[in-house]
Specification:
mainly alpha, three-stranded antiparallel β-sheet, about 50% helix, globular, binds manganese (II) ion
């Protein structure tokens, strides 16, 4: 089995003016491509190229840093591109909207909590909305870790519904040090239909 860099469902400039075309292109063709290549090399080296990424992450503590870092880098970006869209609707509908209200008080409160998790992640990492049993949680992880890896505290593990990359490479060209402005822009391009699909699985 070999992991493939996915095509995006939209053009690099499709998320303008919220996310800029040059950042999107470099992020996909350089950063994500490198994680994908390096992950393929690392799983071959470890003799686990017969396993899925999810299977690897369940036991990722047993493998090399190269498997963990590049595996997360490969997988997290696949999720991230999919939960972005040029046709952002601003908020979810139906059961997902209700579940967010039930878990966080209101949709605005959820956005505030998620934005704070993304803004305060020190250094590089990700912010997540996850489903854990019938609960929704906002978490964040450092580097390329994610909530399905066994290295993450059990209390912060679950099914990933929404992902936000807060590495500087995701925003520095357009926003420089202003990570909160990048996070505000993110809300305009979230694909709530995709988040809803993950929620219903
Ligand atoms: Mn990234």
């Amino acid at each position: 089995m070999s992991f493939k860099l996915p095509e995006l469902d939209y053009k690099y400039d499709a998320l303008e003016p919220h996310f800029d075309a040059l950042t999107m292109e470099i992020h996909h063709t350089k950063h994500h491509a490198a994680y994908t290549n390096n992950f393929n090399n690392a799983v071959k080296e470890a003799g686990i190229d017969n396993l899925s990424a999810e299977e690897i992450f369940q036991n990722v503590s047993k493998y090399s840093a190269a498997v963990r870092n590049n595996g997360g880098g490969y997988y997290n970006h696949c999720l991230f591109w999919k939960n972005l869209t040029p046709n952002g609707e601003g908020k979810p509908t139906g059961e997902l909207f209700k579940a967010i209200e039930d878990n966080f008080g209101s949709f605005d409160k959820f956005k505030e909590i998620f934005s704070a998790a993304a803004a305060t992640r020190f250094g590089s990492g990700w912010a997540w909305l996850i489903k854990q049993g019938d609960k929704l949680l906002v978490t964040s992880t450092p580097n390329q870790d994610n909530p399905i890896m066994d290295v993450v505290d059990e209390k912060e593990r679950g099914t990933i519904l929404l992902a936000l990359d807060v590495w500087e490479h995701a925003y520095y060209l357009k926003f420089q040090n202003r990570r909160p402005d990048y996070i505000n822009s993110f809300w305009n391009v979230v694909d709530w239909k995709e988040v809803n699909n993950r929620f219903k699985k």
